[in-house]
């Protein structure tokens, strides 16, 4: 077989570029469809064990101290973020950690064996260890060892206990440890953003700003059990993007570009702005953002006035490099 050595004409080159774009969009659509299928089949939402704990904990002060409620879960979540920030791992590892932990705790409760707070702490350590093993090396090319996690627990949990709990979690989850996360959905959905529709400002900067702010909202969603446990990641991701875009003024993000973006998303995922699940999730995210900002708990939110001018505070996702709080809670 012979090949022509003639250089392609500009027209052919343009056609090739369009073909490549069509192929890329097709692959993106396939990936999103696969993730949507996964969240319905392999990784469906599970019952919120923290709400059931809050119900049962009204009996006595002792039971309130013993059960795992939303407050206790949030403390564990904060601890996990502290660890991954300190050791410079991706914050996506926390999404995986809490996914494993939530599914395992829900499974245990469904079997009539709700986790005690100490067992929940052990499961949290094992879940983080599992998530970080999948994550691989950190930004410095280093691996977090199980002995380091033992040190973080200050002797509360041994290597053997952590490894045993890791096996129990894998068995309970049936080795399904690659769930689609809200951050992953955001990463793929943002590729549908019509950058070609923005001419007056840097389109890539606008797109990246929406991406970073959306990721920030997705990290907030991990804190709230009613979202992280019961809501689909695709709904959370879509809501995060909508909340991020509402912080951008119409000059920076023209209405027709916004609508074209949402139309592209709806065409592939069937996600729509008027869905009740989306409305409720957006409301929860706004309330959570407001509460955390007011409490000044270390997850700063950008000024809405800045966002309306099309500027983005990338420090929202910058993590403070401080020593993580010990999971045992002892100082």
Itemize the secondary structure elements and their pairings.
Layout: H1 10-40, H2 49-56, H3 61-66, H4 70-86, H5 92-110, H6 117-135, H7 146-152, H8 159-172, H9 182-189, H10 203-223, H11 225-228, H12 233-245, H13 255-269, H14 276-295, H15 304-308
Helix pairs in contact: 4-5, 5-6, 6-8, 9-10, 9-12, 10-12, 12-14
InterPro entries: Cyclin, Cyclin-like_dom, Cyclin-like_sf, Cyclin_N
Protein name: Cyclin-like domain-containing protein
Biased composition (Polar residues): 1-14
Helical proportion, percent range: 55-70%
Major beta-sheet overview: none
Mean pLDDT: 82
Q: What is the molecular shape?
A: globular
Query: What's the CATH class label of the largest domain?
Result: Mainly Alpha
The count of β-strands is 0
**Contiguous helical run count:** 15
Taking all Cα atoms into account, the compactness measure Rg is 22 Å
- Order of SSEs, N→C? HHHHHHHHHHHHHHH
> What is CATH's topology name of the largest domain?
Cyclin A, domain 1
Say what oligomer this is.
single chain
Q: What separation lies between the terminal Cα atoms?
A: 73 Å
**How many domains is the backbone divided into?**
2
| Uncertain regions spanning at least 5 consecutive residues | 1-16, 55-65, 297-325
Q: Describe it for me?
A:
The chain has 331 residues and is mainly alpha-helical. The chain has 2 domains: 47-172, Cyclin-like (Cyclin A, domain 1), CATH 1.10.472; 182-316, Orthogonal Bundle (Cyclin A, domain 1), CATH 1.10.472. Helices cover 63% and strands 0% of the residues. The longest helix has 31 residues, at 10-40. The chain starts with 9 loop residues before the first helix and ends in a 23-residue tail after the last helix. Residues 1-14 have a biased composition (Polar residues). Residues 78-171 form the Cyclin-like domain. It holds the Pfam family Cyclin_N. Keywords: Cyclin.
